[in-house]
Amino acid sequence: MMKRIAVLTSGGDSPGMNPAIRAVTRTAINFGIEVFGIRNGYAGLLAEELEPLDNLMVSGINRVAGTMLQTSRCKEFHELEVQKRALSLLEKHRIEGLVVIGGDGSLTGARALHRLGVPVVGMPGTIDNDIAGTEMGIGVDTALNTIISMVDMIKATASSHSRCFIVEVMGRGSGYLALMSAISTGSQVAVIPEYRLNYERIVELLDVRFRTKHTNCVIIVAEGVCPGHEFMQRLMDTGKGRIQQDVRLTVLGHVQRGGIPSHFDRYLGSRMGEMAVLALTQGERGVMVAQVNGRMQLRDFDDILSRRKTIPADSIRLARNLGIEVGDAVEVA
Ligand code: ADP
Ligand code: F6P
Ligand code: MG
Question: pLDDT tens, 89-133?
């Protein structure tokens, strides 16, 4: 049986990372395994910022967004020599298993450590939902809830002033947040990197909305397509003199990461955290905990990191059937 494991969070923080840390800590302690928290992601590992965690230290963190361990983006961790240094530091601190909670970049770093012989299990902690092999990442649901509350609020002004609002949402290279939030807010357009955008159709749609006396129009733009202001400029250029509504832009930004973790993310973080420890104790290595058909499963790093996660086809169909413009059927990716 392992004696000591460590846990770190890396990359962008996501709501639900704390429940995941709590579940790793409590499950490990329940198995009689010591748990160390590594502060500040891979940078903290290199700086030897390790401290033992206990049940009390992770008490009450489920309702807090962000990560109690803090996180970082650590450029030097791309280098093999630096990864080897991390390996020797883990050995120095007698860490026999490592849990990494983070996005695709962080999991690529975790795979590098695995290849050097560190027993690593990963968890998908990112609002972007861009990790293949798992239906959901930890934080996606909360981020969506935050986005839809913001869009609902924007709609009050849009309706009162008969305006069109462009709302830029996060997601890195993925259109998941944009598509899903467009569906649940009843927005008119989802501009996503996976599908080819047709500016002319959006101009026509705005015209129809205006003529049929709809008071508002909301276009959700995924940041992976282009920054919202660029999108707005191109739309205005395409519709020169034809767009009758006032058009405004709101960039939601980092509020999308700060929502109080939803039930779904608390539960998902807890389930994945528990599973990560069970996996380590059972000798699993180089795998990520994934949600598949609603259940916890393990997926090889090589498998999840070699594929691009696609947008669910049934969500595209749903959006279209609800009258949402999602771009051309041709998949770009
Ligand atoms: P996320 O994990 O949210 O996708 P990043 O892509 O910024 O965020 O990655 C977080 C960190 O993971 C990076 O700052 C770096 O320390 C590590 N990382 C990312 N890509 C690699 C890689 N190819 N090799 C080793 N480490 C990596
Ligand atoms: O990966 C999570 C994410 O919030 C992306 O959606 C976004 O592109 C990026 O991180 C922003 O990064 P930063 O917090 O470094 O500005
Ligand atoms: Mg990422």
Answer: 999 999 999 999 999 999 999 999 999 999 999 999 999 999 999
Facing residues of 8 across strands? Answer: 38, 100
* Answer CATH for 143-258+312-321 from 3.40.50.2300, 3.40.50.460, 3.60.140.10, 3.40.50.300: 3.40.50.460
Could you give phi then psi for residue 17, rounded to 5 degrees? Answer: -65, -35
Structure tokens of 304? 């999840």
Structure pTM? Answer: 0.97
Please pick, among 13, 104, 128, 141, the residue that the annotation labels catalytic. Answer: 128
Residues near ion ligand 3 (CB < 5 Å) are 103-105
Reduced to 3 states (helix: H, G, I; strand: E, B; else coil), residue 213 is coil
In this structure, the residues whose C-beta lies within 6 A of any atom of ligand 1 are 10-12, 42, 73-74, 77-78, 102-106, 108-109, 112, 126
The 10s digit of each residue's pLDDT in 54-73 is 999 999 999 999 999 999 99
Tokens of 10: 């890396």
